Amino acid sequence: MEAICKLKYQRHSQLKVRRIANLIKGKNLWEATHFLNSLTTPTKTVVLKAIKSAGANLSNKLAKKVDLKDVWIKEIAVDQGPMKFLRRYNAGPMGRGMPYTRNMCHIKVVVSDLKN
After folding, report:
1. Most CB atoms within 10 A, among 47, 58, 86, 108?
2. Pick the CATH number of 2-112 from 3.30.365.10, 3.40.50.2300, 3.90.470.10, 1.10.10.10
3. Rounded to two decimals, what is the model's pTM?
4. pLDDT per residue as tens digits for the range 71-116
């Protein structure tokens, strides 16, 4: 059985999150959480939150507590979110106000109790 977790509008760059997501693809949740806890990048918290939520979703679907060593990350995708204009302005040329933009990303994690 599969379970999905989607995190949207995360204030991290998609490239930085995707770099971490590719390292844990195909691992079980126990290995992935221990691997992410050893990293020092601030984007690890977003990915860790997503895989823990996907594991909890699978546990609710199966209506029993699952062992983290038996749950596998089947797919993890990081996509570009909107380049949202925040309600702030930077100074631009000739006294103009330039909108203040930040990168955002969407994260989708699919976990399964079968190892493909």
Report:
1. 47
2. 3.90.470.10
3. 0.86
4. 999 999 999 998 877 778 889 999 999 888 888 999 999 999 998 6
